[in-house]
Structures are given as C-alpha cells and as structure tokens.
Design goal:
Helix content of chain A: 40-55%
Strand order of the largest sheet of chain A: 2-9-8-7-6-3-4-5
Distance between the termini of chain B: 20 Å
CATH superfamily of the largest domain in chain A: Type I PLP-dependent aspartate aminotransferase-like (Major domain)
CATH class of the largest domain in chain A: Alpha Beta
Structural class of chain A: alpha/beta
Order of helices and strands of chain B: EHEHEHHHEHHHEEHEEEEHEHEEHH
Number of strands of chain A: 14
Radius of gyration of chain A: 23 Å
Oligomer: heterodimer
Distance between the termini of chain A: 71 Å
Largest sheet of chain B: 6 strands, antiparallel
Shape of chain B: globular
Largest interface: A-B, 38 and 49 residues
CATH topology of the largest domain in chain A: Aspartate Aminotransferase, domain 2
Number of strands of chain B: 13
CATH class of the largest domain in chain B: Alpha Beta
Order of helices and strands of chain A: HHEHHHEHEHEEHEHEHEEHHHEEHEEEH
Number of helices of chain B: 13
Strand content of chain A: 5-15%
Radius of gyration of chain B: 19 Å
Chain lengths: ~450, ~300
C-alpha cells in the first residue's frame, strides 16, 4: 500500500490570521477565555491540590462491577453497542432517567425526555432552540460557570439575579421582569440551579420555589431547572424540584448521570413540553446525531443491577465528611472578615473575602503554594463582579488534602489582609470568627449576604 | 540537527509557552531538524543529559524559563541555547533592575518607585506613598516587578485605588513598582541578532487596554506592522529599542515594548524571550521583512550556535 505523506498545517502567518479573524462569527467575540484558561491550565499540575475542579469522586466505583458490565455489553450487544442510535436516546435509557427523577418525586412522560451528551449539551440545545442574538436570559448571581460561555456564545443578554442563603431572590426577579415589561421585552427563560447550587452551594427555599413556579405560570415564562446535585443531599429537608411543583408546563428540566454515576460516560438529559422538545431533537440531530450508544448500554446494565441508590448513599457519606472537613478548615484558616456558605448537599462552597482582595490575583499567589480554586468572576457574565469571591470544591479531593489546601489558601489571604492593613493603617483584629458578627455588605456590593459561618449553622 | 524545544514549566505563562513551543516544534520539523519536545519539569536536566541535543530552543516565558534559571542549567550542561544569556534574562525579568539599567544607559523609561513587601510590613513604607503623587501623578500603574503578559498590572486613578492595586501586584511578586502612566501609542520593537525589525503597533479593540486577553486572542487586538510613523519617530523609537536591548545585554532575540508619547518614546520593558504564538509580535515583525516563521526559527538557531558573530 502506498503511504500518504504526512501533511501538517502550513504555518499561519499574520495575513492568514487576519483572514481568519475576518471570518470569525460575531458570537466568538463574546466567548471568554485566555487569562482564566491559562491559570486553570496550571492547576492541572500533579503537585497542585485543586479545589478548583467540579469532579465527583469516581474512585470508589466498584471496578469489578464496571468490568463485568462492560464485558457483558461487549459479548452480548456488540453490534448494537457499536452502532448509531436514535437521536432521542434508547427507550431503556429513558426508563432509567424516569427512575432517577422518580427518586425526587417527579413523574415525567417518557416522550418528553431526550438523552443528551451530558447536561452541558442540554443547556446548549435549549439555548440553540430558544435564544436569538440579543434575547434576554435570566440566571442567578453567581451562576454555574459552565453556563456563562453557553449564554455568551448564543449572544444572549444575560441578566443575573442575586442569591442569598435561600437561593435566587424572587423579589429581585419580579422587579427585573417588570422593568423588562416596561421596555417591551421578556426573557426567553430563567435558568436556575435550585438545589445545592453551583457555585454558591445554596438551596432555594420551598416558598421561593412555589413563587417562581407560580410566577412562570402567570407570565407564561419558561424556567430551565438544572438539577445535577438534587440526590446528593447530606443535610436539611428534601425540596421538591421546580419540575414537580409545575408539572412540566413551564419548567424545562436538565438532569445528568455525571454526579450520581460518572461524568466520563457523558450522559445527561432534558425534559421539555412536546413543542419545545421537537425543536431540541432537531438541534441535537444537527449537533451530534445521537448520544453515545456504548455508554447508554452501560447505564442500562448498571440500573438493571438495582444498586444505583446504594452507590449514591455511599457518595453522600463521602461528601458529607469532606464538606465537614472543609468547613472546619475554613473556620480555622480563613480570616474573620471572610464569609462562606455551608451547603447541605452538592459539591461546592462559595467563600467571599474582603472586597479589596481580587481572587484572580490571589489564585496566582495560591498557585505558588500549589493550591487552586475558581475565582468568583467565572460565575458572572460581567467579569467585574464576583472579584472577591471564590468557589471551592470538596467532592474531588480527600479530607486531608482539603485541610491542607484550605490552610494554604488561608495563609495567602492572611498575608494580603496584613499587607492591606499595613497600607491603609487599618490593623485587623485577631481573627475571632465565632463572636465577631458579619459586617452587612453595602447595598450595591456583589458580595452575597450569606450567613456568616459558625452562626447558627447546622 | 537535534534540537530540544524547552517549553511549559511552572510559570503563570505556561499556557502561552506551550503554544509558542508547539509552533516552534512544527517549524523545526519542517526545516528537517530532529525535534525533542521538553516540558520543563523535575526531570529537565536528566532528559537533556540523556538526549544530548546540539542546541536548545528556549520557548519558555515567565519565571523559571525567562529569568536565567533554565539558561544557567544549559550553561552548566554545555548546551548552546537560543535567546539572551543568564544575566540579560535576569535583568529583563526584573523590571526594577531593568529600569535602573535603562536609566543609567540614558534610555528613556517612565519615572517609578519600587517597594518590596518588607518595606510596607516592617518599615512603614505606606507613609512614604503620599510623597509620590507630585512625582508620579495619577493615574499611575502598579505592577509586579517580575511577571509578564500584564498579569497583576493595575491602574490606580487616585489614592483610594492604590492599596488594592498593591495587594494585587504583591500576589505575583514580593517587589512591585509604581510607575508614571504615559499616554501614547503602544509599540513593540523586536530585535533579532542586534538588528531592529519593523515596528509593530498594538491597537486594542473596543478601547480596552492591551491586557492579557487581548494579547492572546486572535481578533481582539489590531496589529499594524510596520507601524505608521514618520521618519523621525521611527528613528527615535528604533534607537530607544536598540539602546534598551544593548543596555540589558540581550543577545539572539528579544522584544522591547514602548510607549510613544508626544515628547518621544519611553521604554516600558524588555521581554527576553518574547512570545512566538500565532498572535505574537516578533513573528509578525519578522514577516513584515519577508521572513517566514521557519526563516525566523532558523535564524534564531544560527544566532544561538554562532553567538560571537551575532
């Protein structure tokens, strides 16, 4: 056989770059990246304790189970598992999804479900279906950092509504909706992670859930409920998902197997009313034809075994211990002026520092100590916000690493606090987190009025 | 020829360096060289000793790779390398030392004051800040002494913004400088083997300052090369750039960043190892003289192997 010569892309020169730049779609101009991406690239160094990730713990998944199931698929379903599948996903996968949603009290019609390549694709497809450039999308402040580039790439005008310890402030939302009304505009949807929010760790109260659903119905407004963590609860009362409260008329639901089984299998889903679903299916067809059939077979096998709830229960125990370790470490190592959330589930804690600390710069300093976190600005569309906050992940690292990582970040912060004191003549008092009340933030500040740690917390 | 491409490392500019390195590797392969890519880590010396390259192409930016550290190791190993030597790298990386050397050599650079953290923590330097207003004026620029790609650089419009800017800058280095802000056109002069390449002007899009994002994103900043300058301006800018290159003892190649103010050019800094990514300025300047990226890489190698004739 004649060998084709190996050909590589010829070198891009300035004029070629200009030519490419001239070809770029307008939406690429609003995609964000470099500084953060470059800093994040360094967090991947093996010696770095990364509290920056959003990784579930996959180390405890039984290797024997995984091997046996994949072997069975290889032997018994070779042709089908290697073949394309339906765009909507296999009916058997949808059965598993209905079972998972049932565990949180939801009863979706299987026909309303589409299997997607992770929950991330579900968000993308929903935007693809609903958002024209310039359309308004409303979400929480802070919001899931992974949703920001999606909204940006569809050129949405994103409005963020502040959260407090009970989740999105619905009164603020109503105000924004009324203001939009006066301008003759309405948002295409309201995006929310109501349970154990990423990044804030807060959970929307039942009363606000009811108000949000009622408001959506009254205004015929779509709500996109992203619920990756609902089953990962280690404290507090279970909250009904918005989808359950609404019944699925105005709530589009996004779910995923990433946090309850594996993110590597890239399996998520969306549930939407039939007219919306029809368009989502067309969008999915254009995007990737179908979700991996191989991993859908794996999920089917895994659920047939019937032990998926036990595995989640194991995860919950692991995460509870890690959350406790992180909260303890924060109390010990973060300065008195810092506040943080104490989540009852999920993977993340959101900490807010004195406003003169920029957490992007702090990250550079922390990386010298081989520890990483996500600077708060990643959770805002307006990058000037969230500057003194950070997201800390506790699910993907051991308790020992959490304690050491938080200690190192605390040390870097303490140095900045001391320096600021020396610069301004404001000597900070010796940290006394248990007695010193939290300073109420200024009204226009982007710090969240979260409960100060240690104050009546569970 | 066997060429080791040193890239990556632990610096904050690791990502940029990996892109520079990948591009250099491509070019070297096309030139017919045997390429040994090396992500600089704990096994750097071991790998270089085992591979025994004829020359090392240093495509590293920031601390570790651009400050003389790697260069010192290469000297010990007896491997010729591209770009400036140990002393020049160390001087360029530390903006405070570089500015002292520039001023001593008569090269114009904006007024500044430098402080280390100890001065604030232990010597009450904060009390000296008030004396700076009349000498530097506002706005002023606060930057870490060692750092690149505009990381940690803040502008302070008034006193109230200075402490916060200092806290940011001290996140990157334990010495910072407060520098007079010079309004003017942003220019870069790349110097190759002691000769100035055409001047590049960076015009940030959307009124942004030429920040980290704008530097590395295609389409974010408009570059004009050669910059539209009259003869006298060109001559003054080139002279300042070559003066800076020589004052800091650079060799092989480097890039001088300047501001052209109404009263002439002011050198901001010299990058010992400028970026070689798709959006970097040195390759653009070389191209303006008809030099392809391959030609540029080959020339840089030649200069590394025959430093005496450079």
């Amino acid at each position: 056989m004649e060998e084709t010569p190996h050909r590589r892309r010829a070198h891009t020169r300035t004029r070629d770059l200009e030519r490419y730049a001239g070809l770029f779609a307008a939406r690429t101009g609003v995609m964000r990246s470099s500084a953060m991406r470059d800093l994040m690239a360094i967090t991947a160094r093996p010696e770095v304790i990364s509290l920056a990730g959003g990784l579930p713990d996959t180390s405890t998944f039984p290797a024997g189970t995984f091997a046996a199931q994949m072997t069975r698929i290889a032997q018994e379903s070779t042709a089908e598992a290697l073949q394309y599948g339906p765009t909507e996903g296999f009916a058997e996968t949808v059965d598993c999804i209905v079972e998972v949603m049932g565990a949180e009290g939801m009863l979706p019609d299987p026909d309303d479900v589409i299997v997607t390549t992770g929950g991330q694709q579900a968000i993308d497809l929903i935007c693809k279906t609903l958002v024209d450039p310039g359309d308004v999308v409303v979400c929480e402040a802070p919001t899931y950092p992974g949703a920001v580039p999606v909204f940006c790439s569809y050129q949405a005008e994103t409005i963020q509504i502040d959260c407090d310890e009970d989740g999105m402030r619905i009164d603020d939302l109503e105000e924004v909706l009324e203001q939009l009304d006066r301008e003759g505009r309405r948002p295409k949807f309201v995006y929310s992670v109501p349970s154990f929010q990423n990044p804030a760790g807060v959970t929307m109260s039942l009363e606000r859930r009811r108000r949000l659903v009622e408001l959506a119905r009254r205004r015929e407004l779509l709500v996109v409920e992203d619920n990756p963590y609902g089953l990962l609860r280690f404290g507090g009362q279970a909250m009904p998902p918005l989808y359950q409260l609404d019944g699925g008329d105005f709530v589009i639901y996004v779910g995923t197997f990433s946090k309850i089984l594996s993110p590597g299998i890239r399996l998520g889903w969306a549930v939407a009313p039939p007219p919306v679903m029809e368009k989502i299916v067309l969008g999915k067809q254009a995007a990737d034809l179908c979700t991996s059939t191989l991993t859908q077979h794996f999920v089917r096998e895994y659920f047939a075994e019937g032990r998926w709830r036990e595995y989640i229960a194991d995860l919950v125990e692991i995460y509870r211990g890690r959350r406790d370790a992180m909260v303890d470490a924060l109390r010990e190592h973060f300065p008195a002026q810092a506040t943080w959330t104490e989540p009852e589930g999920g993977l993340f804690i959101w900490a807010t520092l004195p406003e003169y600390i920029d957490t992007s710069d702090l990250l550079a300093k922390a990386l010298r100590e081989d520890v990483a976190f996500v600077p708060g600005q990643a959770a805002y569309v307006d990058e000037s916000r969230g500057r003194s906050s950070m997201r800390l992940n506790f699910s993907g690292v051991s308790e020992e690493e959490i304690r050491e990582g938080v200690r190192r970040i605390g040390k870097a912060i303490a140095e900045q606090v001391e320096l600021y004191g020396a610069l301004t003549g404001e000597r900070e008092a010796v940290p006394a987190p248990e007695v010193e009340p939290a300073k109420p933030p200024p009204a226009d500040a982007d710090v969240l009025p979260f409960r100060r740690s240690g104050e009546g917390a569970a | 020829m066997k060429v080791a491409v040193l890239k990556g490392g632990r610096s904050l500019e690791r990502g940029v360096s990996l892109r520079s390195g990948a591009r250099v590797e491509d070019a070297l392969e096309r030139l017919g060289h045997e390429v040994v890519p090396v992500d600089a880590g704990v096994d750097l010396v071991k790998r270089l000793s085992a591979e025994g390259p004829a020359v090392a192409f240093v495509a590293m930016h920031g601390l570790g790779g651009e400050d003389g550290t790697v260069q010192e190791l290469l000297e010990i190993l007896g491997i010729p390398f591209t770009g400036p030597g140990v002393a020049a790298c160390a001087r360029c990386m530390d903006k405070v030392w570089a500015k002292h050397d520039l001023r001593a050599a008569g090269v114009p650079t904006p007024d500044w004051f430098a402080f280390n953290e100890t001065a604030f923590r232990e010597l009450g330097a904060a009390d000296a800040l008030s004396g700076l207003e009349e000498r530097l004026g506002f706005p002023l620029v606060v930057k870490p002494s060692r750092g690149g790609s505009a990381l940690g650089v803040k502008f302070a419009a008034g006193w109230f913004e200075v402490p916060e800017a200092l806290v940011s800058a001290f996140s990157y280095d334990n010495r910072v400088l407060l520098e007079r802000f010079v309004e003017g056109r942003e220019l870069a002069v790349s110097v190759l083997g002691g000769e100035a390449l055409p001047i590049v002007e960076a015009i940030p899009g959307g009124g942004d300052r030429y920040d980290f994002e704008a530097r590395y994103e295609i389409g974010r900043t408009e570059f004009v090369c050669p910059a539209e300058l009259d003869e006298a301006e060109s001559a003054a800018v080139t002279a300042a750039a070559l003066g800076a290159y020589e004052a800091l003892g650079c060799a092989g190649f480097s890039r001088v960043d300047l501001i052209l103010a109404t009263d002439g050019p002011q050198v901001l800094e010299v990058n010992a190892i400028p970026g070689l990514t798709d959006t970097s300025l040195l390759p653009q300047a070389a191209e303006a003289t008809g030099m392809s990226f391959e030609d540029l890489v080959e020339r840089i190698l030649e200069l590394a192997l025959k430093p005496a004739t450079a």
